[in-house]
Specification:
Blueprint (H helix, E strand, L loop, with lengths): L10 H7 L8 H15 L1 H4 L3 E6 L2 H9 L5 H17 L2 E6 L8
Parallel strand pairs: 1-2
Helix pairs in contact: 2-5
Length: 103
């Protein structure tokens, strides 16, 4: 099954990621679609093995280690792993193909 979606996040959400003056929100912008996809397709993902392509290496390692210092990123990771447990998922995080970046 392949599912895709697209859209824009509300500016208030992006601003909430800029805690203590942080300007870049790349990590959060890469984690948000994972959380949204799990929320949208929770019944389809329940008790299934899933593979996620992560283009940001720091985020991919954070997903595997669940260790991150930034509060907004930590909150997103916590939500992702709570959904993972609630849905009994088994997720694999792989580096995205070289030369392919999401639009």
């Amino acid at each position: 099954m392949a599912r895709v979606f697209g859209g824009r996040l509300a500016p208030e959400i992006v601003e909430s990621w800029r805690i203590s003056g942080q300007k870049q929100v790349i990590a959060q912008a890469e984690l948000a679609p994972l959380l949204i996809a799990r929320a949208i397709w929770k019944e389809e993902l329940r008790c299934r093995r899933t593979m996620y392509f992560i283009y940001n290496e720091a985020i991919r390692w954070s997903m595997m280690k669940t260790l991150v210092r930034h509060p907004a990123t930590r909150r997103l990771l916590d939500e992702l792993w709570m959904l993972e447990a609630a849905l009994c998922c088994c997720s694999w995080f792989e580096k995205g193909p070289d030369g392919v970046q999401p639009g």
